[in-house]
């Protein structure tokens, strides 16, 4: 039986060998939710950057730049980290250079994996179907918040473990913990997360609608995958 | 309101400043359960070591040596890591030098804290009472398994967060996650943990009785505390 494991923080990545694994990077609030929304709305590619300056320089190469730190859009960038900036025709056919507090850092730390795909509640089923057909063991990498474990990414990991439980065995305790938490939260994720630290942080920024949107399951049928340093639809 | 936070793995300790905190180190299976049992049975002191060789050398100074790696007693040491080796008159009045796979490493990584105390289900209430009267914010440091998050230490953290919820506020998402998990598991922790990776590991070593014992709440009214490099009763 293939296995599924969960790395609850990018700061634990050194404990998880990835060279033979399919890595699912998740940053529910909001980087990977934005990316999935952008691909569902026709973006051509998204190039993730860990570093702000390198990302901003991509403007010179004709890229739309998206930059977020501490939940807010960074001055000088075209876009921030709200999924509503990536809907309708706002990104169709464009190339986006993207840097965020946690999500793009998690992608950076996953390099060296057999393959890297982008997960969110919005494309949960697309991710699950892909993993079922893949030959590799799976590692879900939760972006967390500045290295600390967060609830929303853990819930996504739990949703995936739960969905695949008849096909992929949990590799350690983290997938079990995530699955238990998802099973408590699944019928009211917005309510469950209302006490979480990042949701409190986002509520202060008045982006409650972002949160509700990012917790909607199976809104889009897309699967962004990293290839040669950029995300594209497979 | 004072706060309580939970560091789910010693590998995340660099994210948590401890200089102004009371740190509760927990390694339910089985280092801190052994330590608490030993103090309840009259041990004079326990000196924790991260390093095997340094620990073994303490024999020359008249210490009883206890050494465990990968769940098993290490050759040359007097004792291993089963709480049943620390009951009755087996340790009364003795000084023990102790090294384990995870627990003593977690103590090592907590140095620099305002104070360090030892927690387990066996002395849960003693820990909670002490924290209520302390002036400092609290960090529970879960020993985990070789850096990875485990369920049993997370459950203890959750039990403590739950017990103190009217007095100490959660500082981030990890205490909330731990509390949720404890509330699922509390009425049958042995059953809940039967799927966990370390319990499977221990079951192979035929130490199911150790596990049941380590999950017994409030067996002892003792509070080991680190002072000048050694644990003693406060």
CATH class of chain A equals: Alpha Beta
Q: Please name the CATH topology of chain A.
A: putative 2-phosphosulfolactate phosphatase
Oligomer: homodimer
Architecture per CATH nomenclature, i.e. the level-2 architecture of chain A: Alpha-Beta Complex
| Low-confidence segments of chain A | none
Helix content of chain A: 25-40%
Tell me what the structure shows:
Chain A is of the alpha/beta class and 234 residues long. Chain A is globular, with a radius of gyration of 16 Å. The mean pLDDT of chain A is 95. The two termini of chain A are 25 Å apart. Chain A has one domain: ComB-like (putative 2-phosphosulfolactate phosphatase). In chain A, the strands form three sheets. A five-stranded parallel sheet of chain A has the order 7-2-8-1-9, with helices on both faces. In chain A, strands 3-6-4-5 form a four-stranded mixed sheet. Chain A is 34% helix and 22% strand. The A-B interface holds A 8-9, 11-12, 14-15, 145-151, 154, 170-174, 176-177, 180-181, 184, 195-198 and B 8-9, 11-12, 14-15, 145-151, 154, 170-174, 176-177, 180-181, 184, 195-198.
